[in-house]
Amino acid sequence: MKKLLLTSLMGVVMFISSAGLLQAAADLEANTPAIAAIKTSMQTRHAQMQTFYASGAIGLTQDGFIAVKDASAVPLSQRGGLAGLVKDENSDRARLYKEIAAANGHPEWQGEIQSTFAGRWIDKAQAGWFYQRDGAWLKK
User: Fold this and answer.
1) How many independent structural domains does the chain possess?
2) Is 63 part of any domain?
3) How far separated are the first and last CA of the chain, in Å rounded?
4) Structural domain span for residue 43
5) Rounded to whole angstroms, how far apart are CA atoms 21 and 10?
6) Is residue 104 domain-resident?
């Protein structure tokens, strides 16, 4: 009975593996010179963005990026700068997801890595920041 169960289990594992459903988890902490440079850029920018998060001017999107949520929360003279920060942040995030996938040797994992990071960004957001869930803005 045990041998039959083991044989059946091995068959299921082989089927799952051959179907491409069994994959090693991505190393989200991968670190290459390119990833380190992107992280440094993001950390430097983060200090500039904190007041915009706190005011509700920007929020975290459910797809792993940021967006201007309420431009009226920012004085007109600062809106151009805010748009530039958002553009630069989203560019770095896209590059980060791509570089981590490449560092794992699986560029096809980029979408899954992005999705994982999207959840992590929201989980780590400070109280009072906004994030998207099913297209709606919610306050953490």
Assistant:
1) 1
2) yes
3) 53
4) 30-139
5) 15
6) yes
Q: What is the pTM of this model?
A: 0.81
pLDDT tens over the chain, length 140 residues: 444 333 433 343 333 333 343 356 889 999 999 999 999 999 999 999 999 999 999 999 999 999 999 999 999 999 999 999 999 999 999 999 999 999 999 999 999 999 999 999 999 999 999 999 998 999 99
Q: Can you give the three-state secondary structure of the chain, one letter per residue?
A: CHHHHHHHHHHHHHHHHHCCCCCCCCCCCCCCHHHHHHHHHHHHHHHHHHHHHHHCCEEECCCCCEEECCHHHCCHHHHHHHHHHHHHHHHHHHHHHHHHHHHCCCHHHHHHHHHHHHHHHHHHCCCCCEEEECCEEEEC
Strand arrangement of the beta sheet that strand 130-133 belongs to = 66-68, 58-60, 130-133, 136-139
State how far the Cα of 9 lies from the Cα of 122, in Å rounded to an integer.
38
Q: Is residue 25 domain-resident?
A: no
Do 110 and 59 contact (CB within 8 A), yes or no?
A: no
Alpha-carbon separation of residue 109 from 18, 104, 116, 117, 119 (angstroms): 18, 9, 11, 12, 16
Which residues make beta-bridge pairs with 132?
Answer: 137
